[in-house]
C-alpha cells in the first residue's frame, strides 16, 4: 500500500513536472516570438518597409515549422498580396494566411479564424534626425506570437478541431484595418462559411489588466456557458463580453459581413503607440494562461453543432451595409467638348465650337445599382455662327439618375449610364463681337443629358451629351434653334 502511495506521488510529481516544463517551454516560445518581432532590426514593422518584410519572413518560417499549411490553393506560399494607395504612392501589403484542416468530414467546410495584425507604426525621425522605433511589443507582436503557438497546438493535434482553422497575420491594420477588409472582400469561399473570428490584438498584459476581454463574444449565440466553464477551469477572469463588435481592430470588417467576431484583449495597459512598448514589459505567464484558455475555447467552438450569429450582430451588419451603400460623395467635375446649334425646322446644323464646363457635384446612392448626381457648373457653351463664334456664359444644374454596377470595393470601381434633366441660366454672351441681348435670347433654358462613365479610386471618367428643349430665342416667330453639347468629363471625389 505504502509503495503504491509512493508510486502515485511520484507519478503525480512527474506529470506536474511535465506540465511545468510544457508551460515553461510555451512561455519561452511566446517570449521569443515577441522579442524577435519587436526587436530593433524589424524597425516597428511599418507598412511597406523592410522591417515588415523581415517580420513576414519570421512569421512564415514559424508557420511552416509548426505545421500550419498555406491556405490559398493558387499559390505555394502564405501570402495574399494587395496594394494600397497612400496619397499618390502605392505601398505593398501582404496578409499571411495559414490553414489547419478540420477533422470532421462535414464541419471541415466551415472555418474559424484566429487573426492578429503584424504591422505596427514603423519608425520616424525627430528634428535632430534621431530615429525613433515603435517596437509594438504588446501591439501586436503579442497577438502574432499567440496565433503562432495556437497554430502549433492545433497542427500537432488536428483531431481537436472539427471545423477548419484559418491562422492569419494581417497587414495594414494600423492604416485602417485594410488587411482584414481586403481578406474578407476577396474570399475564395462563401463568407458564410466563416463562422466566427477572433482578433488577438494586444494580449500581453493579463496581470496588469486583471482579466481577459472578449468583446463581441455574444455576437454568436450560446457562448456564455462555454466561457464561464472555461474561465473556471483555467482560473482566468473574463472582463468585457457582449454582442457589440469592436471597431478598432480587425474584427470590424468581419462583423460588417455578418460574421461573429471577438476582440481578445488585455486592455490599453502597455505604452500604447509609444516607443516604450517593448518586449520586456509583457506578462508571458499571462500569455500562457490565455493560450490554454483560447486553445480549449476554439476546440469547444469547433465542435458545436452550429455556430449562429446573434440577431443584433446581423442587424448591425445590415445597417452598416445600408449606410455604406448610401454614402454620399462630393467632388469636382471638369468637362471639355464641342457644342453646336441645331435649327430644327430647317434641318440645319451649325459648325461646332470648343466648349467647357467646370463645377461641383454631389452623388447620393439610392440603392446598390441606382445613384442620383446633382451638379452645379459654370458652363461656357456655344457654336460657330455667321459672325464668328456664338458664346453664352451660364450656370447649369444637371440632375443625373445613374444606373450602374455595384462598387468593387478595392478599387472603388463602378460603371454606369445616366440620364436626366438640366436647367441652365444664361447670364452673358456674345454673337461674334455683339453682346447678347436677353430680351431676344432666352435667359432660362431646359434640356436633358445622356451619358455613360466609370469611377475608379477617387476619379470618374465619362462622356455626356446635353440637348436643350427650349429654343435660343424668346420670340416664337424666330427660327427654333436648340443648343447641343458633347463633353468628355473627369471628376474627382473629395
Ligand atoms: Zn493593434
- By DSSP (H or I, 4+ residues per run), the number of helices equals 9
CATH level 4 superfamily of the largest domain: Zn peptidases
Q: What is the average per-residue confidence, as pLDDT, rounded to a whole number?
A: 91
Looking at CATH, which topology of the largest domain would you report? Answer: Aminopeptidase
Strand content: 35-45%
**Tally of extended strands?**
20
Question: What can you tell me about this protein's structure?
Answer:
By secondary structure, the chain is of the alpha+beta class. It is 28% helix and 36% strand. Strands 1, 2, 3, 4, 7, 8, 9 and 10 form an 8-stranded mixed beta sheet that branches. The protein has an 8-stranded antiparallel barrel with strand order 11-13-14-15-16-18-19-20. The longest helix has 36 residues, at 2-37. The site of zinc ion has 6 residues, from helix 3.
Amino acid at each position: 500500500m505504502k509503495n503504491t502511495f509512493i508510486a502515485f506521488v511520484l507519478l503525480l510529481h512527474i506529470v506536474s513536472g511535465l506540465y511545468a516544463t510544457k508551460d515553461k517551454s510555451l512561455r519561452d516560445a511566446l517570449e521569443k516570438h515577441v522579442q524577435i518581432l519587436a526587436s530593433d532590426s524589424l524597425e516597428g514593422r511599418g507598412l511597406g518597409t523592410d522591417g515588415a518584410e523581415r517580420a513576414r519572413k519570421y512569421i512564415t518560417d514559424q508557420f511552416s515549422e509548426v505545421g500550419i499549411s498555406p491556405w490559398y490553393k493558387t499559390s505555394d506560399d502564405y501570402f495574399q498580396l494587395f496594394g494600397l494607395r497612400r496619397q499618390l504612392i502605392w505601398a505593398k501589403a501582404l496578409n499571411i494566411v495559414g490553414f489547419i484542416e478540420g477533422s470532421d468530414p462535414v464541419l471541415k467546410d466551415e472555418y474559424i479564424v484566429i487573426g492578429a495584425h503584424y504591422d505596427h507604426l514603423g519608425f520616424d525621425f525627430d528634428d535632430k534626425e534621431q530615429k525613433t522605433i515603435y517596437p509594438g511589443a504588446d501591439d501586436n507582436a503579442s497577438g502574432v506570437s499567440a496565433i503562432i503557438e495556437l497554430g502549433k497546438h492545433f497542427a500537432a493535434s488536428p483531431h481537436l478541431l472539427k471545423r477548419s482553422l484559418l491562422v492569419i497575420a494581417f497587414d495594414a491594420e494600423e492604416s485602417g484595418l485594410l488587411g482584414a477588409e481586403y481578406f474578407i472582400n476577396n474570399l475564395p469561399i462563401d463568407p458564410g462559411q466563416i463562422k466566427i473570428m477572433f482578433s488577438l490584438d494586444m494580449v500581453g498584459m493579463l496581470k496588469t489588466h486583471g482579466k481577459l476581454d472578449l468583446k463581441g463574444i455574444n455576437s454568436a449565440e450560446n457562448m456564455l456557458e462555454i466561457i464561464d466553464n472555461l474561465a473556471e477551469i483555467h482560473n482566468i477572469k473574463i472582463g468585457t463580453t457582449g454582442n457589440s463588435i469592436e471597431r478598432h481592430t480587425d474584427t470590424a470588417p468581419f462583423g460588417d459581413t455578418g460574421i461573429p467576431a471577438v476582440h481578445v484583449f488585455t486592455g490599453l495597459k502597455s505604452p500604447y503607440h509609444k516607443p516604450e512598448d517593448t518586449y520586456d514589459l509583457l506578462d508571458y505567464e499571462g500569455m500562457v494562461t490565455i493560450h490554454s484558455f483560447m486553445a480549449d475555447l476554439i476546440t469547444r467552438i469547433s465542435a458545436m453543432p452550429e455556430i449562429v450569429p446573434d440577431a443584433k450582430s446581423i442587424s448591425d451588419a445590415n445597417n452598416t451595409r445600408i449606410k455604406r451603400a448610401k454614402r454620399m460623395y462630393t467632388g469636382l467635375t471638369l468637362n471639355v467638348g464641342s457644342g453646336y446649334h441645331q435649327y430644327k425646322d430647317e434641318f440645319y446644323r451649325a459648325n461646332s465650337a470648343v466648349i467647357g464646363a467646370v463645377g461641383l457635384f454631389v452623388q447620393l446612392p439610392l440603392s446598390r445599382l441606382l445613384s442620383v448626381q446633382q451638379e452645379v457648373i459654370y458652363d461656357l457653351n456655344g457654336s460657330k455662327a455667321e459672325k464668328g463664334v456664338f458664346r453664352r456664359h451660364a450656370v447649369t444644374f444637371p440632375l443625373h439618375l445613374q444606373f450602374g454596377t455595384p462598387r468593387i470595393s478595392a478599387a472603388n470601381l463602378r460603371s454606369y449610364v445616366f440620364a436626366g434633366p438640366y436647367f441652365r441660366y444664361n447670364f452673358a454672351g456674345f454673337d461674334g463681337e455683339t453682346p447678347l441681348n436677353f430680351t431676344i435670347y432666352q435667359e432660362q433654358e431646359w434640356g436633358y443629358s445622356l451619358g455613360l462613365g466609370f469611377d475608379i479610386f477617387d476619379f470618374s471618367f465619362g462622356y455626356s451629351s446635353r440637348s436643350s428643349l427650349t429654343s435660343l430665342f424668346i420670340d416664337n416667330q424666330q427660327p427654333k434653334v436648340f443648343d447641343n453639347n458633347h463633353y468628355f468629363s473627369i471628376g474627382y471625389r473629395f
